[in-house]
Hints:
- By secondary structure, the protein is mostly helical.
- Helices cover 71% and strands 2% of the residues.
- It has one domain.
- The protein has 16 helices and two strands.
- The protein has a two-stranded antiparallel sheet.
- The longest helix is centred in the first third of the chain and has 29 residues, at 71-99.
Amino acid sequence: MSELPGRPSTPEWAIALIGWVLQGGVLLSAAIIVVGMLLLPTRPGGISPARLLVFPFTWSQLAGELSHFFPQAIITVGLLLLIATPVMRVAVSILTFALEHDKKYIVITSLVLIILLFSIFFVGAISSSQPAVSTSASFSMLTVVLIFLGAILAGLLGSLVGLGGGVLIVPLLTLIFHLPIRFAIGASIISVIATSSGAAAAYVRDHLTNMRVGMFLEIATTVGAISGAFLAGLLAPNLLAVVFGVILILSSIPLLKKMGEDTPQNVHNDRLATFLHLDGSYPDHQQGKEISYQVTRTPWGLGMMYIAGLISGLLGIGSGTFKVLALDVLMRLPIKVSTTTSNFMIGVTAAASAGIYFSRGDIPPLVAAPVALGILLGALVGARLLVRMRNQVIRLIFLLVMLVSAVEMILHGVGVGV
């Protein structure tokens, strides 16, 4: 891999280690979830509406049910391991930067890890509650299979354009299966983590992800996600959904102007990008060469990432559209780097709020399990497709998905389908 003057290059062993952590976490969590799902038919109640509403959502409940090998407790362990995967990726990144003697990123990455742990073990603990939920929806093995198939499509699409899959998961669960919106949001948070973890390992190994950009911007996204998840219990997000939907539509205008652009031209590092060594390069298989790029308007991108995290925590979506917009339009990274770096980040953003949603009882295993498995499968397929696609095609797909996201958020805000 070529190297720009003055820019530290991440060693191959570090890339391999981070990829192994992501892939290992995904495979182990998927295996545990599958074991729990296979045990469900052997227990009274099986897969039913009544069983859907009763599940462990505190550590004491989880420990008690695990001692009796209850299937939903086993599935919950798999889901928690999936949530822990991006956290472990951050922890391992500290080790790799330490071995590289990169003091700047040791501090940056340690700060991200502290924010994550604070959210999971402190903010999540004080948010623990499970308001009564009822549903008249039918729920059976067929429902689980259909959710799984829908999640495959969501994961495929999410991995291609740097989103979290919630664009399809939330309407799928609420409009088609008539599940409570809070369950749809909880499952959407899981889908974000699954998309990121499932595809990021491949993107990191393929040198498409700018890990330094991702780690630096995760400071803003994690703080934003905690803010949003905490405020979600205090504020009605309907108006925000409408406002952000309108912003997404307006944001499509500069994307239309750039539709024919393959690689950003005449971009030069700003001072912060130079100080943090954010410039990079990636192998473009379509052009058959290594593409070097630089980064600009870094402070604006950092501010946009806080907003993206806030939206993620408030509405239970990956807010990948805002991340890609910040990376592509503001910071002027190539679209493949923007989507893969967004994918790298969204799992950490979602993990920052996932502990809060888990403690509220908003992540039902019977819904989150087929979503996680389907998303993982779709994300792995999507990661293989992206490296062979043209930049213009990726930009077009992203634009279409962004407009769909905008319409969905506006409809959600005005109460249609909820």
